[in-house]
Every structure is written in C-alpha cells, then in structure tokens.
C-alpha cells in the first residue's frame, strides 16, 4: 500500500491519498500540479517540508530492500548510454540482492531478449522505455510506480503496459500510474487521484470521478477549471 499524508513540498500543499493493493491507481494533473514532486518524495529522491509518503507504512529510505519492495519507472531515469542492457540489469540485481536468473526473466518479459547485449545509447526510445520497466520489475516488487510508462512505445508496447498494470494488480500488487495520456489511464486504472495546483481535485473510483461527464478527459478539464 502507498499512503500519502499531509504532503507538502514546493507546490504540493498538504495532499492525502491512498493507493491500495489489488488496484491500479491513476495519478493525473496538469503540468506543474505536483505529480512529479509527489513521486520523487515517495521514492526518497526529495525531502518533504511536511507530511509523509509511505510504502507499507515506511518511508522509502527505511525499506531494507527497496528494489524488492518498490519497482519504479521515472520519466527521465535510465542507464548510462555505453552500458549494455543486460549489464544494467545485472548491476541492479547484484546491488539489491536479486537472483541473477531474474535478469533473463525480465528481459524476456519486456521483449528485450534479442537486444540484451546492445548498448543503451543504441536502443530506440521504445526499447529504452521497456528497459526502464524491466528494471522496475527486476525485484518482483509488491508495489509498482510507473511515470509515463507508455512514452515512446508503439501500439503493441502500449497494450503490453496496460496488461502488465492490470495483471500486476490482479496478482495483489499496488500499482500507481502517472500519465498525461487519458486513453491509457481510462483503459487501465481502477481508482483516480487528480492533483490541481498542489491540492487534490478528485480522489475515488474511476467511475465515481467521471460520473456526469462523457469521458475522463471531460471530467479532468472540468475538475481542473478548464472545461472545453
């Protein structure tokens, strides 16, 4: 479970929400609303001014084996350009006490087995995105945090990410997905949190948040003060 309680940092102004096991929770908001800041605090990359962001009741820094608890894909994250894909995953496995056999498993799962020895700098944007997702899956974590996971992916890759999120939730994992692509969110999430100007504009099941609106996009613009 992910719990955000009274979180304050930069624009983020005392937000509260919960992402529960067995469900995909979508995190939406306009640029500058505070989504990235929230994720960075959750993953221990930034310190909050107030409040907390917890995974299974603990701050990220308190987790004994972070990669085996939280698998994360952040938009700008990635391996060094000269590093081979397989070596990047092997290093992550070694540094997080993950069995080496898991590397081959996630390469296959992410559709990267054929390019495992290719250097990251020579991978296409879509392949680099798949490598980032493979890194998130490496520790077989109980929590997945995915920021813009379909960026650069072709239609087959987009469908794979949607299925991955749904299947992960069905297996009892907690999935938090942040995206600007409304179609991805509408087709994937169970619950929705919308942040606007650093505060929660909506929080609840997808059907409840979109009730009375013809689409998620229409609900989003209405809730963020930009009806069209």
UniProtKB/TrEMBL annotation:
<keyword id="KW-0813">Transport</keyword>
<dbReference type="GO" id="GO:0005524">
    <property type="term" value="F:ATP binding"/>
</dbReference>
<keyword id="KW-0547">Nucleotide-binding</keyword>
<dbReference type="InterPro" id="IPR003439">
    <property type="entry name" value="ABC_transporter-like_ATP-bd"/>
</dbReference>
<dbReference type="GO" id="GO:0016887">
    <property type="term" value="F:ATP hydrolysis activity"/>
</dbReference>
<protein>
    <recommendedName>
        <fullName>ABC transporter domain-containing protein</fullName>
    </recommendedName>
</protein>
<dbReference type="Pfam" id="PF00005">
    <property type="entry name" value="ABC_tran"/>
</dbReference>
<dbReference type="InterPro" id="IPR027417">
    <property type="entry name" value="P-loop_NTPase"/>
</dbReference>
<feature type="domain" description="ABC transporter">
    <location>
        <begin position="2"/>
        <end position="222"/>
    </location>
</feature>
<keyword id="KW-0067">ATP-binding</keyword>
<comment type="similarity">
    <text>Belongs to the ABC transporter superfamily.</text>
</comment>
<dbReference type="InterPro" id="IPR017871">
    <property type="entry name" value="ABC_transporter-like_CS"/>
</dbReference>
<dbReference type="InterPro" id="IPR003593">
    <property type="entry name" value="AAA+_ATPase"/>
</dbReference>
């Amino acid at each position: 479970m992910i719990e955000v309680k009274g979180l304050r940092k930069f624009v983020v102004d005392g937000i509260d929400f919960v992402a529960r096991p067995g469900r995909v929770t979508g995190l939406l908001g306009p640029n500058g609303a505070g989504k990235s800041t929230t994720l960075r605090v959750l993953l221990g990359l930034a310190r909050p001014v107030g409040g907390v962001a917890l995974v299974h009741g603990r701050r990220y820094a308190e987790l004994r084996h972070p990669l085996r608890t939280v698998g994360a894909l952040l938009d700008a994250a990635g391996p060094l350009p000269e590093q081979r894909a397989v070596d990047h995953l092997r290093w992550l496995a070694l540094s997080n006490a993950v069995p080496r056999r898991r590397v081959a498993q996630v390469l296959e799962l992410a559709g990267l087995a054929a390019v495992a020895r290719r250097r990251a700098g020579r991978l296409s944007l879509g392949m680099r995105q798949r490598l980032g997702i493979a890194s998130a899956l490496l520790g077989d974590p109980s929590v997945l945090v995915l920021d813009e996971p379909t960026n650069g992916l072709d239609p087959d890759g987009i469908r794979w990410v949607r299925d991955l999120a749904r299947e992960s939730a069905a297996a009892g994992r907690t999935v938090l997905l942040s995206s600007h692509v409304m179609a991805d969110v509408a087709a994937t999430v169970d619950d929705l949190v919308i942040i606007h100007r650093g505060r929660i504009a909506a929080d609840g099941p997808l059907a409840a948040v979109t009730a009375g609106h013809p689409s998620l996009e229409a609900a989003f613009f209405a809730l963020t003060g930009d009806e069209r």
